[in-house]
Amino acid sequence: MASAALRCRSPLVTTTRRSFHSSSVFMARRDSKETARARQVPFNLMDLEPPQTEDDTTVAGHLMLRQHRQLLYHMRLIEHEIPKLVAFRKPFVPPTPKTPVVVRSISYGGEEHPATLKRVIVVPVAHLPLKDDSARHSLKLIAGSRWTPTPPRDSGIGSDAPGGEHGYVKISCEDFPRPAMNLKWASDALDRLIEEANKSAGTLSDIPTDTRHISSKARKSKKGQHLRIRPGKRVTIRDFPQEWLPNPTPQTSVAIP
């Protein structure tokens, strides 16, 4: 019993434990080269996306390629097809009094546009088949705002063109789905206008020509023609009456001693 008590009273052998914060830095595990390199690279959200495996371009790239294809298509036409049009070349023949009607149209190079259906005809009154001056005066009254003393700005007729002493008539139409139908209506309207002017010749001779539409257009443009009631052609120094000018006196030479 005594020996057992002595064994129980013997001191116990204990081991000391170290905390993590008291350990040496040399005992820590070193990072690999990949881990150290990854810590140095800044974080980027684009790295979270999966890698692109498709080799197709973007929408903007497709639009650019389409523009290049259209350009090459027209360049091929210029190179190979346009020289063939030389066989259809015709010399320019100016219009004669027998063909006084000028037809104007608008084209957008093959693109669809509502204005491409419109047709406009312009004709000088002096070249129309009218009986006499009274018929021309009746045509000006019946035409109304379609008649102007000067050629329309977009008619292609110059201000010094022959046949403009009685003004011009302009008729346009864009109500039908075909350009030929609009041109046919404008041509028929001109024929009806000529017929009515020949019928009413002499009956409207006491009515003055209405120029209110010309004055209204000049006022709206505000380019100087609306001032001092001078619509139409602007007054210049060439319009000064010649009879108001003094008679030129011959200059006498003075001898210098």
UniProtKB/TrEMBL annotation:
Residues 91-244 form the Small ribosomal subunit protein mS35 mitochondrial conserved domain. InterPro entries: Ribosomal_mS35_mit, Ribosomal_mS35_mt. Residues 204-257 are annotated as: Disordered. One of its GO terms (molecular function) is structural constituent of ribosome. Residues 214-235 have a biased composition (Basic residues). GO terms for biological process: mitochondrial translation. One of its GO terms (cellular component) is mitochondrial small ribosomal subunit. PANTHER family: MITOCHONDRIAL 28S RIBOSOMAL PROTEIN S28, SMALL RIBOSOMAL SUBUNIT PROTEIN MS35. This is Mitochondrial ribosomal subunit protein-domain-containing protein. It comes from Thelephora terrestris. The lineage of its organism: Eukaryota, Fungi, Dikarya, Basidiomycota, Agaricomycotina.
